[in-house]
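Hi team,

As requested, here is the filled-out complex form for the phenylalanine run. I kept the field names the same as last time so the parser does not choke. Let me know if anything looks off before we queue the next batch.

— J.
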Amino acid sequence: MGEILSATDWEDQVFAAGAGKTLEEAGLLEIEEHSTKLVSLGQEGKRAAEEGLLESKMWDLIKKQDEGNRSLSGVMSSGFERSEAGAGIGILKGLGVKIDSGKLVYTDEEGITKQIEKRTDFIESLSNGPIDVSGLEEDMLAHFSSRKGLIVFEESVSRTWKLTKNGADIDETTLSVVAMIGELTPEMLQTDSWKNAEFKPFDVSAPTPVPSGGRRHPMQALIERIRSVFLEMGFSEIEGDFVQSAGWNMDALYIPQSHPARTMQDTFYLDDPGTLDVDEHYLDLWSKVHEHGHDTGSRGWGGSFDKEESQKALLRTHTTVNTVRHIAENPDVPSRVFGIGRVFRQETIDRTHMPEFHQIEGIIHEPDSSLPMLISTLKTFYAKMGYPDVRVRPAYFPYTEPSAEVDILWKGEWLELGGSGIFRPEVTEPLGTDWPVCAWGMGLERLAMLILDLDDIRQLYQPDLERLRKMPLL
Ligand code: PHE
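And here is what came back:
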């Protein structure tokens, strides 16, 4: 027994722990477990123990400089790398050093020095090997655990074995060494040795690693769910290219050529290709419709339509370009189609905006398409997605009349998810159809944020596996 207990080899330790557990289960041993948390220096910590902490080196340097000349650039020109200097200044700021128009200033020199000494002592105290955390100052532990690579924690478990009364009383001659089998091997099966073997009982409460198998990205899962809902409702899926002409992305939708959304600030225009060919037939029709309304009964926007503007290449700003092109290609075929695709707008990235996002788009193009049909379709869609409370409000888009904004009820609040309406004759006539078209487009990321309960759109795309794993399954 003594040999086993002094085992230092990992496998022997596991073996000893297993044997002890068996004896405990047989009531012969009592095991007391005592775990301690140890802390030691990490890679950076070892370096700091030798060379000094970054803040300590930097502080010495700053104090040596003349009072008027203590600047960030001064620190950098004294041998710190840019990233190191930045990090060091960050740490010193936390200690009370301020930057005032490029100069480093501070008032409590003594306080800062003391704090840095305390940190240095802490690191030095660890330089002789691991120490039990219970004897260390909590604020130092907290501080250094927030810094990369300085300290590492490890857990050590020690077990004390004591014979129970049964264990002490047992007649040793009745004991024998039995190899208990934890895992059956092909050899055991072949040699029949399993027949006389004793098997270790399973301990279903033993700790195990949590398996983290692959899973679909939540956005992909959501797209697939939306797809299946529309397919279930009898819609077919369409796709289109990211690169489109301004003509199809905007003119076809009767968006005036002077519309602010068409400027470079809002739309990504391309250099290569800078232009795209657009069928002259459509250029003619759009220019007539935009200038004076053509046969649509509209008076148009007036002014003169610029066909060159129509041929500018851009990254599509909405997926409505797909549905419009679908009608142009199938003007006589009744259709219910949807698409889920990426769109691009010049947006500054923040909590709710990204320059690339997705839209869910759809149309019903049939002789009897109507506003009630549009509303009931959207209500059905959202109900199937799990949001039975939908409301529509009047809205404005240059290409629909009437137009409606679609809101859903979420935790007692109405949230706007998208736009919809019936395409205006200025849109449908050049496409070659007389039928009304129910159309809608909504943001996918908005919906994803609701479903996944996120408050920052960027969280959907950061490759943070930990967070992604925890996101609910759809
Ligand atoms: N294209 C609009 C948008 O990008 C949405 C919309 C689609 C509105 C179809 C009306 C009809 O917000």
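Two things worth flagging: DSSP finds 19 helices and 16 strands in the chain. The mean pLDDT is 91.

Thanks,
J.
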